Amino acid sequence: MPMPPRVPHPTTLITVAPTGAESAKADVPDLPTTIEELVETAVRCEAAGAAMIHLHIRDAEHQPTLDTGRLKEAVDAVRGATSLIVQLSTGGSVHDPLEQRLKVLDAEPDSCSLTMGTTNFGDDVFMNPWPFVSELYQLAQEREVVPEFELFDLGHVHALHRLLDTYGLPYGGKVHCDLVMGVPGGGMPGTTDALVASVQALPAETTSWSATGIGRTTLAVALASLSRGGHLRVGMEDTLTLSRGVPVTHNEQLVSRAAAIAELAQRPAMSTADAREFLQIKQR
Ligand code: KMH
Ligand code: ZN
């Protein structure tokens, strides 16, 4: 079976996912939810080694929103303050309707997340039926937005084969995946075995992949990813503690830790300029 290249890239793409849609500001006051907090977070995370930011936006009441104006405001603000690749979540929250999630691309991000299938998500269901995935993918191709394929399960890897076989390569020709592991209540576990099984099954067109482990799987997944030649996603969307009982107070801590272990693996953090070239991001 053809497999993605085994020679690791000499540097590590670090993506920060600072907010997510699941944690409440009232429970996690350090979660960046305002535009000002997002910009401050983006600036500090870029300095610490991040090259891409995966954004979920909140409204004035700190609730998840897919309002196009608010998304655009955040994209412009982060672009104005950093050179980070701005990736908008099309996953939103489990309560967002599919039609609204398709409209995320109206905010003209550099990249968008694109989850390759439905998955149990805590007590909820994160819906990604095939017609929605296909439509979103074709829209990303049309709008020249580089997708990041979010793979929560081995079945999602299988669906990615079908997508690429049916609709061809994304804008820019690069196929970048992110393994999202250890989601409570669904998907694959955050283990080295699951990571290796998924990577071995990736389509031959895959040019790069990262991995993120939810909650306490974060370090195990990061170390497994680096040792298997992958890249890293970290952030308070996925992990709220640095170790048992020690809360994350700023996303920069997670990015700095990721950059340090990448350095230790002799694959230091990738610059934003290199990441733009690496993922073939359109100049906007
Ligand atoms: N918030 C989750 C339901 C994505 O950003 O594309 C979905 C999620 C995936 O976070
Ligand atoms: Zn997300």
Report what the structure shows:
The structure is a single chain. With 284 residues, this protein is α/β, with parallel strands linked by helices. It has 9 helices and 14 strands. Strands 1-2-5-6-9-10-11-12 form an 8-stranded parallel beta barrel, surrounded by 8 helices. Strands 3-4 form a two-stranded antiparallel sheet. The chain binds (5S)-5-amino-3-OXO-hexanoic acid (KMH) and zinc ion. The site of (5S)-5-amino-3-OXO-hexanoic acid has 12 residues, from strand 6. (5S)-5-amino-3-OXO-hexanoic acid is lined by residues 20-21, 89-91, 93-94, 113, 115, 121, 126, 150.
Largest sheet: 8 strands, parallel, barrel
The neighbouring-strand order within the major sheet is 1-2-5-6-9-10-11-12
Which hetero ligands occur in this complex?
(5S)-5-amino-3-OXO-hexanoic acid, zinc ion
Total DSSP helices: 9
Could you give the order of the helices and strands? EHEEEHEHEEEHEHEHEHEEEHH
Distance between the termini: 38 Å
Strand tally, please? 14
Portion in beta strands: 15-25%
Structure class: alpha/beta
Tertiary shape: globular
Rg (C-alpha, Å): 17 Å
> What's the rounded overall pLDDT mean?
97
Question: pLDDT below 50 for ≥5 consecutive residues: which ranges?
Answer: none
Helix content: 25-40%
